[in-house]
Amino acid sequence: MLFDSRKVTELQGLSYKQRMQAIRLAYEKTDLLIKALLNFCKFALLTPVFFVIAKQQDWSVLPWILLTFFLYPILTKSLTIYFVRPQLAAAAKQVLTQSVKD
User: Fold this and answer.
1) Are the C-beta atoms of 46 and 72 separated by less than 8 Å?
2) What distance lies between CA 17 and its chain's CA centroid?
3) Which end of the chain is less crowded, N or C, counting CB atoms within 10 A of the terminal residue's CB?
4) Is 4 domain-assigned?
5) Residue 15 gets which letter from DSSP?
6) Which domain, by its residues, includes 86?
7) Does residue 8 form part of some domain?
8) What's the predicted TM-score (pTM) here?
9) Domains contained in the chain, number
10) What does the pLDDT look like over 44-54, one tens digit per residue?
C-alpha cells in the first residue's frame, strides 16, 4: 500500500494540488461498486474505534481518539489510491492538460 502520493508512478511530476485533483478525478470516474467497497472499507476502519468509545466512557478512550485522528487520513488516502489506481493515469493526464490551458 502506498502511504505517499509522490510514490505513485502515475502521479510523478505533479504538484501536491495536482495529485489531489487527479485522485479526486479518478475517484469520480470509478465504478459505483468500487466506490461502495472503498466507503465500506473506510467505515470498517472507524467502527472498532466507535465501539471502544461507546464501551469506555472515561479518559482511557483518549489515546484511541488521537490514534484515529492521526491514522485515519493516512489509511484512507492509501485505500483511495489503491482502489482508483486504474483511472489515475487518465486523471493525471487530464489534470496536466487542464493546468497547461490555465
Assistant:
1) yes
2) 14
3) C
4) no
5) -
6) 14-101
7) no
8) 0.81
9) 1
10) 988 988 888 88
